[in-house]
Amino acid sequence: MTNHILNHLPYKSSFRFVDHIASLSEDGVKGEYTLKPDSFFYEDHFENNPVTPGVIITEIMAQIGLVVLGMFLMLKETDHLPEEEGTMYPLLTSTDVSFYKMVLPGQKVTVISKKEYFRFGKLKCYVEMLDSDNELVARGMFSGIIKKIAIKK
Amino acid sequence: MTREEILAELKKVIAPYTTNKEMLAGIDERTDLIKDLKINSANLVDIIIDAEAKYDIEIDYDSADKMVNVGNCIDVISEKLTEKK
After folding, report:
1. Which residues in chain A are contacts of B64 at CB distance < 8 A?
2. What is the reported pLDDT for A43?
């Protein structure tokens, strides 16, 4: 099941921030990601002094905490992803994150997400990120929806 | 509860989700939650959940779909309150 979800994540290589799902249930998810030292953002953020940008930390938390859990909940409801799976995209609708520690290239982070609710197609979760010393990197409330988007070809 | 009473309570429910406090103070039944109050459409879900807790009612998918402007919200809330009695 967890592999199935990983295979369906709509992100491509440089923007996929989930390596492993450690646990997954209707109430929450725990997953891991190791920051790749050759990621595109380290070259410029900052020059000769690479630090993981806050937006990337936020994205990692959203992909594991909201998207993985959201896809799991949708699969559970319907037994399959919607027919036009190719045109369904997860969208972030709000975040409120506080940051506590820097994350450097090559570090492994763990994201733990607890569901607040999943109703009317919206998933809201309290999400924490910990580093490999189990220290808090960031935490906050995340909400998102999965929306059908018409792609102009 | 009268419609005016529900409107007064509804203002408090909506308040955390709009930054347009002036507009909120002057809302009437025709005020559109998304267009006029600039509420993020996903936050309508939070307003529905907060309204459920406040009035001890349950709002189903079809009713939620109708809650576009303030008047529609009052319709749904008063309908659910009547069903509860």
Report:
1. 120
2. 95
Partners of A24 in beta bridges: A29
The answer to whether B49 contacts A117, with C-beta atoms less than 8 Å apart, is yes
Q: Which CATH superfamily is domain A2-148 in?
A: Hotdog Thioesterase (3.10.129.10)
Residues 39-58, chain B: which have Cβ within 8 Å of A?
40-43, 45-46, 48-49
In chain A, domain spans? 2-148
The single-letter code of the amino acid at B1 is: M
Tell me which amino acid residue A79 is.
D
Whole-complex ipTM: 0.87
Interface probe with B: pick from A91, A116, A120, most Cβ of B within 10 Å: A120
Rounded distance, CA B81 to CA B69, Å? 19
Task: Please check the confidence at residue A152 and state whether its pLDDT lies above 60.
Answer: no
Say if B23 is an interface residue toward chain A (CB within 8 Å). no
Size of interface A-B (CB pairs under 8 A): 22
| H or E element at residue A115 | strand A108-119
Q: What is the pLDDT of residues B26-58, one digit of tens each?
A: 999 999 999 999 999 999 999 999 999 999 999
Within 10 angstroms of residue A3's Cβ, the number of other Cβ atoms is 8
